Amino acid sequence: MAVVAEAEVEEVTNRQVILKRYVSGCPTVDDMEVVAGAVRLAVPPGSPAVLVKNLYLSCDPYMRTRMTRHSEHSNFVPDYVPGKQVLDNCSVCKVVVSGHPDFKPGDLLWGVTGWEEYSLIPNPMFCHRINHHEFPLSYYTGVLGVPGLTAYAGLFEVAKAKKGEHVFVSAAAGAVGQIVGQLAKLTGCYVVGSAGSDQKVNLLKTKFGFDDAFNYKKELDLNAALKRLRRTNQGQSFCFQFLLYAHEDESIVYMNHHQPWIIIMNY
Ligand SMILES: NC(=O)c1ccc[n+]([C@@H]2O[C@H](COP(=O)([O-])OP(=O)(O)OC[C@H]3O[C@@H](n4cnc5c(N)ncnc54)[C@H](OP(=O)(O)O)[C@@H]3O)[C@@H](O)[C@H]2O)c1
After folding, report:
1. Nearest to residue 267, comparing CAs of 154, 160, 178, 172?
2. DSSP secondary structure string for all residues of 68-121
3. Residue 245 to residues 30, 174, 209, 241: CA-CA distances in angstroms?
4. Which residues make Cβ contacts (< 8 Å) with residue 130, sequence separation at least 6?
5. For residue range 169-204, what is the model confidence (pLDDT) as tens digits?
6. Phi and psi (nearest 5°) for 229?
7. From the CA of 21, how far away is ligand 1's center (Å)?
8. 145 lines ligand 1 (CB under 6 A)
9. Buried b / exposed e along 56-94 (16+ C-beta atoms within 10 A)
10. Which among 57, 58, 62, 200 is the best mutation to test ligand 1's pocket, defined by most ligand atoms within 8 Å of the CB?
11. CA–CA separation, 166 vs 188, rounded Å?
């Protein structure tokens, strides 16, 4: 890596999004603030850090959890610190300066950075180089990023879903759910999804290729819905269930009474 004299290091403006206060209910733009900071285009000498320019930022549901104050250890990721901490999440970015042997300036990465123009990543262990430039870069915040990995790992590593099996997906029109459904269909499963509007249900059936879908706000008896939509000649069944979302309790009850449904909780 070329050594740049301290006096020659360029400093640029770095706009950042911070949380103003802890949130109750649905977050709004008033809960956040854009602040103008500055960043030196350098990494600490001898460190494995990388300085990146963020190109695409993702906004995911788990960020909402971090916007509420929790008692110690009651959340699986630390709460944001209002007033100073930049919101962070997955992004697609370009390396500007690197102290890491695996990354060089110009490399495109996906991983965890901040909601800011530039991020200094002290240890880029959660960054991955993008080697397939034939896809739109934004896909690395979706189907080729964490939502896609979550769907893939849940369906194939945890459930080990196979051709001919049943898969029920809740929050099926969401970022993860729609990929679970499509992967399951590609595998030859019989796939049923639930969503909270007729428009989403239509999307599941006409665009994402689900075999069937229902609006859980209209069809309140989940047991009846799953019983109606199940095909008796199908093999083992999986429920790709998003924890804390609609009909969590009912589907657990249903699974208990209608073996062999296997429930996969996605937190
Ligand atoms: N995105 C990721 O990379 C990732 C990774 C690991 C885990 N997860 C977890 O997987 C779950 C789904 O994530 P996602 O990214 O697919 O989410 P998403 O795209 O935001 O979809 C979430 C959907 O959940 C439904 N929902 C039901 N009850 C809700 C409520 N009280 N508030 C808000 N939405 C509600 C809504 O659809 P309806 O209108 O159909 O109800 C909503 O569109 C979350 O628990 C998340 O923490 C996500």
Report:
1. 154
2. S---TTSSSSPPP-TTTPBPEEEEEEEEEEE-STT--TT-EEEEEEESBSEEEE
3. 25, 12, 23, 8
4. 92, 107, 108, 109, 110, 137, 140
5. 888 999 999 999 999 999 999 999 999 999 999 999
6. -90, -10
7. 23
8. no
9. bbbebeebebbbeeeeeeeeeeebbebeeebbbbbbbbe
10. 62
11. 9
Q: For tokens 């429930």, what's the residue?
A: 263
The first and second tokens of residue 161, run together, are 């879903």
**Residues 186/162, Cβ–Cβ less than 8 Å:** no
- Is the distance from CB of 95 to CB of 104 less than 8 angstroms? yes
Cα separation of 21 and 19, whole Å?
6
**Which tokens go with 16?**
């950042």
Give the global pTM: 0.85
Query: Which stretches of the chain drop beneath a pLDDT of 70?
Result: 1-7, 74, 231-267
Contact 169, 119 (CB under 8 A): no
* Residue 235 and residue 163 in contact, taking contact as beta carbons nearer than 8 Å: no
**Amino acid identity of 228?**
R
**Ligand 1 contact via 208 beta carbon (within 6 Å):** no
Q: What is the pLDDT of residues 5-21, one digit of tens each?
A: 666 889 999 999 999 99
SS3 59: coil
Q: Is 151 in the pocket of ligand 1 (CB under 6 A)?
A: no
Are residues 210 and 186 in contact, defined by beta-carbon separation less than 8 angstroms?
no
User: In this structure, what token pair is assigned to residue 94?
Assistant: 């370009």
Question: In sequence order, what DSSP letters do the residues of 122-141 get, joined into one string?
Answer: S-GGG-EE---TTS-GGGGG
Q: What are the backbone angles phi and psi of residue 171, rounded to the nearest 5°?
A: 45, 45
